[in-house]
Recover the amino acids of this structure.
C-alpha cells in the first residue's frame, strides 16, 4: 500500500500546522529514542522562527504529504539529547551494517509506514533505502514535487533493507548504550562474513565492533581478517581486551600474530593473558615463522601407543572443543616419542578393544620443528595429508600442522 | 646503537610495505597529456620554464600529503568523506563532473597509446583495441596486490625519459641555472604554458585515487610517517621525470629551432636526429605512460563514483554483485578507446573541454579536502596545524587561481576555434 508509506526525503521540509491550521514551520529532522521504541519516530524537530522546536509523537494528529497537523501546541524548544538517534544527522549518508545481506551499506533514504494508533498518525521506520531509486529521490528532493517523484521512481527497482536487519555503527561505547545498539545480530554471523564487514569499515568502527562483541567471536573473526589488518586492530585495542581475544585464538595463529606486533605491544598483551595459553604461545613464539615449528599448532590429541579404541573415544569426549577440526589421533610412548598416527574415521569400524597401534597408518611421517616450510608443503602434497606431526630433536611430539595451515601459506604466496 | 639500528631497519621495512599509492599517483600524473605539456614547454621555450617545477613540487606535496593523511587516519575514501560530511547532492554533482573529465582523460591516453605505437608502425586499429582489452583484463582478473606490482613496474619504465634526456646532450649548465631562476614574461603564449604546467600537474582524480589507494592498502595512522615520505618521494620523482622531458625537448628541438609541437609523438620524432635510441626510449615512455593512465583512470573513476553514491564496488565482487561498478568501468574504456578510432573526431576540442571541467571541479575538491582535514571529529590529533593550514590554503588559492586562468585561456581558444 504505497499510500501509507512516507520517505525521509519527503518528511524533511514537510509543513507543520497547529490546531487552528496555522503554519508553525517545516520539519528539519526526526528522531527515534531506541531505548523506548526501536522503530517509532518519537520526535519531530521543527524549524520555525529563531530556534528549532520539538514535537513529540503524541502531539501529532495526522501526517500526510500535505503536512503534519498537531493536536497539542505545547511545544518545547529543541535541545540536544544523547538518547536520540537523529535520522538526518546520524543515519543519512552514513554507513550501517546490513546483517541479512552481510555487508556494509550507505544510507540514502529511510522509508516509514504511516499507521493510525490511538487516534493519531504514527511513523515507524520500515526500511533503510540504498541504491539508485533512493538516489533519485534525494536528487529531486525540494526540486520536483514528491508526488511526481513517486511516479518517476516506479520504473527503478527498489533496493532496501528491513530496519530489523540494520546494525548501526557507533564508535563511542557510551552512546552505544544510550542508543540501545546491540551487536547480538553480528555475533550470529559466520566469522568469515563478519571479517569481511569489519575490513570494510574505518579503523575506529572496526575496533569498536571487535571490542564490543564476545571475545570468542572476536577471535574467530580476527583470524579471518587480512593479516596486516589483524596487527593494526590488535595494537589499537586495549591490552586486556586484546589478551582476551588472543586467548581464544588457535595457539599457532595467536603466536604468528603476536610475532608480527612490535615487541612492546606483544609483551603487554602476553602479560594480560592467563598462564596456560600464554605458556603455549610463548613456546611457539620461539620458532622461526617459516619453519615447521612456526607453522604448527599445539592443540592435538596424543595417546599412549598401548591405548585401545575405547580409550580414544573417551579421550575425544574430553576434548570436545577440538572435534570440529580433528582428524588424526597421535600415539606416543612413555617418553613422549612419536609412534604413530590414527585417522579418527577408523575408530568407527573397529571393535572397542582393538589396540590403536594396529590401526596406525604406514609409513611413519613426521617432520622436525626446524624443517623448512617448503619441505612441509611437499610432504602434504606427496602423501595427501590432512595433518602432519611435528617432533623435536629427541623425536618427541611437539605439535601438529594441519592442512588449513598449509593452505594459508600457499595462498599468501 | 643496536637499538637505533633496529629502529632504522624497522622504519625501512615499513617504508617498503607502504610503497605504492604515492608513487603510482604521482607517476600517472605524467600521463599522455602531461608529457605533451612538458614537451611543448621544452620545444617552444627551451630551458626557461624549468623554474616552475620547484613550486609545482611543493604544491603537489602539500595537497597529496593531506589526502594520504586523511586516508590513513579515517580509513575512508575522499568521496566517502564528502558524502558523509556534505551530503548526497554535492557528491553527485562532483561525481558527474569527475566522470566527464576522467572520460576525456581516458580518451587522451588511448590517443597516446595510438600515436606512440604508430611511431613503431603499428596501426591504431590494432593497438587501441588490444590495449583496451588488456587494461580491462588486468583490472578485472587481477588482485590488488598483483595489479599494484604491475603498476610499480610501470613506474620504473619512466626511467626511459631520464636516459633519453641524457642522450640528447642538453646544455646542463643552462638547465641548472633556469631551474632556480624564475623567468617572467608578459608573452601570452609563455604565460599559458606556465599555467598549463601547473594545471596538468594536479588533477581532481589524483586526490580521490591516492586516498582510496592508501585505504585499500590498509595503511594506518601508525605507519603514516613512512607513508608521508613515500608521497613526498613520489612527488619529487614525478618532477624529476618532468624535468628530463622538458630538457630533452629543449636540447633536441628548441636549440635547433623553437617551434610548437602537435602532440607528444611529434616530440619523440624531434629527438630522432640525436640518436635512434633517444627516440625509441621517448616513444616507449609515452606508450607506457598512456597505457598506465588508461588502466588507472577508469578504475579509479568507477571506485570513486560507486563509493560516493553508495553502490557496490570492487574488483573482488562479481558482475552481478556490483553491476554499476563494472558497467561504469567498462563504458569508460569502451568509449575512451572507441572515440580514438573514429576518424575526424575533434579530439583536441574534447581534451580542451575536459581541461575546463577539470578546472571547475578542482577548486571544489581542494576546498572540501581542506575543510575535511580540519574536522576535529574526523581527524582528531591528525588535523592540520595552524602553520600548515596557512601553507595549505595558500597552495589551494594559488592552484585555484592558476586553474581558473587556464579555464579562461582554454575557453578563449575554444571560442576562437
Amino acid at each position: 500500500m504505497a499510500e501509507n508509506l512516507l520517505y525521509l526525503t519527503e518528511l524533511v521540509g514537510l509543513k507543520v500546522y497547529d490546531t487552528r491550521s496555522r503554519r508553525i514551520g517545516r520539519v528539519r529532522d526526526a528522531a527515534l529514542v531506541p531505548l523506548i521504541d526501536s522503530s517509532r519516530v518519537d520526535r519531530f524537530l521543527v524549524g520555525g522562527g529563531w530556534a528549532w522546536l520539538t514535537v513529540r509523537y503524541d502531539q501529532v494528529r495526522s501526517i500526510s504529504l500535505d503536512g503534519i497537523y498537531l493536536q497539542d501546541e505545547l511545544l518545547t524548544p529543541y535541545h540536544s539529547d544523547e538518547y536520540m538517534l537523529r535520522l538526518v544527522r546520524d543515519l543519512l549518508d552514513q554507513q550501517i551494517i546490513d546483517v541479512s545481506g552481510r555487508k556494509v551499506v550507505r544510507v540514502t533514504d529511510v522509508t516509514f509506514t504511516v499507521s493510525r494508533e490511538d487516534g493519531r498518525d504514527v511513523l515507524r521506520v520500515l526500511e533503510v533505502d540504498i541504491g539508485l531509486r533512493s538516489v533519485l529521490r534525494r536528487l529531486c528532493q525540494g526540486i520536483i514535487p514528491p508526488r511526481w517523484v513517486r511516479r518517476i521512481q516506479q520504473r527503478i527497482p527498489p533496493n532496501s533493507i528491513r530496519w530489523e536487519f540494520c546494525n548501526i555503527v557507533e564508535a563511542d561505547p557510551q552512546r552505544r548504550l544510550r542508543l540501545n545498539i546491540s551487536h547480538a545480530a553480528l555475533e550470529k554471523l559466520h566469522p568469515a562474513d563478519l571479517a569481511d564487514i569489519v575490513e570494510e569499515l574505518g579503523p575506529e568502527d572496526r575496533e569498536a565492533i571487535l571490542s564490543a562483541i564476545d571475545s570468542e567471536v572476536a577471535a574467530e573473526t580476527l583470524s579471518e581478517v587480512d593479516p596486516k589488518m589483524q596487527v593494526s586492530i590488535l595494537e589499537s585495542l586495549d591490552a586486556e581486551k586484546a589478551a582476551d581475544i588472543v586467548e581464544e585464538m588457535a595457539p599457532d595463529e595467536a603466536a604468528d600474530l603476536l610475532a608480527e606486533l612490535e615487541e612492546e605491544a606483544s609483551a603487554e598483551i602476553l602479560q594480560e593473558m592467563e598462564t596456560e595459553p600464554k605458556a603455549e604461545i610463548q613456546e611457539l613464539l620461539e620458532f622461526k615463522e617459516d619453519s615447521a615449528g612456526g607453522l604448527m599448532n599445539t592443540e592435538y590429541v596424543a595417546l599412549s601407543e598401548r591405548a585401545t579404541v575405547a580409550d580414544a573415544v573417551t579421550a575425544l569426549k574430553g576434548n570436545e572443543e577440538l572435534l570440529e577440526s580433528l582428524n588424526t589421533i597421535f600415539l606416543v610412548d612413555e617418553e613422549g616419542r612419536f609412534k604413530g598416527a590414527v585417522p579418527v574415521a577408523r575408530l568407527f569400524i573397529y571393535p572397542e578393544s582393538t589396540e590403536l597401534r594396529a590401526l596406525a597408518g604406514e609409513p611413519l611421517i613426521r617432520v622436525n620443528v626446524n624443517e623448512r616450510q617448503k619441505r612441509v608443503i611437499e610432504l602434504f602434497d606427496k602423501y595427501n595429508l590432512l595433518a602432519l606431526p611435528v617432533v623435536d630433536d629427541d623425536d618427541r611430539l611437539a605439535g601438529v600442522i594441519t592442512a588449513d595451515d598449509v593452505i594459508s601459506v600457499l595462498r599468501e604466496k | 646503537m643496536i637499538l637505533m639500528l633496529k629502529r632504522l631497519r624497522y622504519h625501512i621495512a615499513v617504508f617498503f610495505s607502504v610503497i605504492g599509492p604515492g608513487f603510482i599517483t604521482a607517476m600517472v600524473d605524467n600521463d599522455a597529456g602531461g608529457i605533451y605539456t612538458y614537451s611543448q614547454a621544452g620545444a617552444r621555450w627551451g630551458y626557461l620554464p624549468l623554474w616552475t617545477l620547484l613550486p609545482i613540487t611543493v604544491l603537489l606535496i602539500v595537497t597529496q600529503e593531506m589526502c594520504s593523511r586523511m586516508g590513513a587516519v579515517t580509513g575512508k575514501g575522499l568521496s566517502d568523506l564528502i558524502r558523509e560530511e556534505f551530503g548526497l547532492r554535492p557528491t553527485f554533482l562532483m561525481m558527474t563532473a569527475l566522470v566527464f573529465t576522467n572520460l576525456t582523460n581516458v580518451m587522451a591516453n588511448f590517443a597516446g597509446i595510438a600515436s606512440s605505437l604508430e611511431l613503431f608502425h603499428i596501426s591504431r586499429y590494432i593497438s587501441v583495441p588490444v590495449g583496451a582489452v588488456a587494461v580491462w583484463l588486468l583490472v578485472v582478473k587481477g588482485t590488488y596486490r598483483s595489479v599494484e606490482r604491475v603498476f610499480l613496474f610501470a613506474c620504473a619504465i619512466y626511467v626511459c625519459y631520464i636516459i633519453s634526456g641524457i642522450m640528447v646532450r642538453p646544455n646542463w649548465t643552462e638547465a641548472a641555472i633556469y631551474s632556480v631562476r624564475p623567468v617572467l614574461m608578459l608573452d601570452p603564449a609563455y604565460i599559458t604554458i606556465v599555467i598549463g604546467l601547473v594545471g596538468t600537474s594536479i588533477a581532481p582524480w589524483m586526490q580521490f585515487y591516492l586516498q582510496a589507494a592508501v585505504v585499500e592498502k590498509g595503511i594506518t595512522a601508525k605507519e603514516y610517517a613512512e607513508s608521508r615520505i613515500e608521497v613526498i618521494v613520489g612527488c619529487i620523482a614525478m618532477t624529476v621525470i618532468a624535468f628530463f622531458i622538458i630538457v630533452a625537448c629543449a636540447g633536441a628541438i628548441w636549440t635547433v629551432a623553437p617551434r610548437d609541437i602537435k602532440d607528444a609523438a611529434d616530440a619523440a620524432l624531434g629527438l630522432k636526429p640525436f640518436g635512434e635510441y633517444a627516440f625509441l626510449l621517448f616513444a616507449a615512455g609515452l606508450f607506457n605512460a598512456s597505457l598506465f593512465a588508461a588502466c588507472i583512470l577508469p578504475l579509479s573513476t568507477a571506485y570513486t563514483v560507486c563509493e560516493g553514491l553508495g553502490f557496490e564496488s570492487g574488483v573482488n565482487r562479481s558482475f552481478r554483485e556490483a553491476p554499476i561498478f563494472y558497467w561504469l568501468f567498462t563504458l569508460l574504456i569502451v568509449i575512451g578507446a572507441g572515440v580514438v578510432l573514429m576518424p575526424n573526431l575533434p579530439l583536441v576540442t574534447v581534451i580542451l573541454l575536459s581541461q575546463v571541467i577539470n578546472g571547475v571541479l578542482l577548486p571544489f575538491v581542494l576546498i572540501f579536502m581542506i575543510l575535511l582535514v580540519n574536522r576535529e571529529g574526523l581527524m582528531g590529533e591528525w588535523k592540520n596545524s595552524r602553520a600548515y593550514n596557512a601553507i595549505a590554503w595558500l597552495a589551494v588559492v594559488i592552484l585555484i587561481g592558476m586553474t581558473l586562468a587556464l579555464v579562461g585561456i582554454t575557453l578563449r581558444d575554444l571560442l576562437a576555434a
Summary: Chain A has three domains: 5-163, 183-286, 302-412.
